[in-house]
Structures are given as structure tokens and as C-alpha cells.
Specification:
Helices cover about 0% and strands about 40% of the residues. It is mostly beta strands and about 140 residues long. The strands form four sheets. Strands 3-1-7-5 form a four-stranded mixed beta sheet, with no helix packed on it. The protein has a three-stranded antiparallel beta sheet with strand order 2-4-6, with no helix packed on it. The protein has a two-stranded antiparallel ribbon with strand order 8-10.
Length: about 140
């Protein structure tokens, strides 16, 4: 470890983690752990209690979309609950995690604009909408 010395005194102490381990597993192959000890992706791995566990959802099947995460231990908090890749702190018990998928909304919704233009007229739920402001009226600027 290195650091840049500030213009003040510093106090350094090592932080030691508990060496006890518990197992994190994935239900139904819905995801995989990416920070495994041997560098390979796995659906079950032992982690030190208190360490970060990184989990990545599989690609959604056709007609499905990713919804979030669940865990067998309700005390586990996912750092990014709506992202397909997230992390959690390994508790002091074995846990099972699941990536949750649901049927994708195939409805197309319209975008009504005034003073701007959308790239297209209809979008599906969850789709990124790109808009562009029309030319500013004389004497005005777009903010």
C-alpha cells in the first residue's frame, strides 16, 4: 500500500478481517459470481465473512427483462439493486441469491413533445429516449 503524505500527521493501523468463510450460491443458474478466488466465474463460492461478493445476472431470455435481486437472508443489502451486476457484503451465514426476471413489456408508448423532437415516435418501457431541443426563439438560449 502507498499513499501521498498530507501536510499533517497521520496514524496508520492495519485492519484484519475474520478468516471465517461462508458460502454464497446462485439459484437456477440465474447469475454468476465474478470475484472468485481462482478467477473463474462460478455459481457457488466461499467468501470471507465481511468481504464483498460481486454477482452478475445472466442475459435475459427472449421476452424477459431483468427486475432485480433477492437473497435467502433478508438482511443482505445489494449495493445496486436494479443493476445486472451488483455486490453485497458476505454475512456470517450461507446465502442463496437469485437474479429476478419478468416478462418484458412489449407495448410501445408515444412521446409527446413541444419545443423539442424525439428520435422516434414510440418507445418500449425501459428504452432510452433521445430528444433534441428545437432552435431557440430569437433572443433566447437553451439551458
Amino acid at each position: 500500500m502507498t499513499f501521498t503524505m498530507p501536510a499533517d500527521s497521520v496514524k496508520l493501523e492495519p485492519l484484519y478481517m475474520n478468516n471465517d468463510k461462508c458460502t454464497a450460491s446462485v439459484v437456477d443458474g440465474s447469475a454468476r459470481f465474478t470475484n472468485t478466488h481462482d478467477g473463474t466465474d462460478k455459481t457457488s463460492e466461499s467468501y470471507n465473512i465481511g468481504s464483498y461478493v460481486i454477482v452478475e445476472a445472466k442475459n435475459a431470455a427472449s421476452g424477459e427483462m431483468f427486475q432485480g435481486w433477492s437473497c435467502s437472508d433478508p438482511a443482505v443489502n445489494f449495493l445496486l439493486t436494479n443493476n445486472t451486476t451488483t455486490a453485497f457484503v458476505m454475512p456470517d451465514n450461507n446465502v442463496t441469491v437469485r437474479a429476478i426476471f419478468s416478462s418484458a413489456d412489449t407495448n410501445e408508448y408515444s412521446v409527446q413533445t413541444s419545443g423539442c423532437t424525439a428520435e422516434k415516435a414510440g418507445y418500449m418501457s425501459g428504452e432510452i429516449v433521445k430528444i433534441k431541443a428545437d432552435a431557440a426563439p430569437a433572443g433566447k438560449v437553451f439551458h
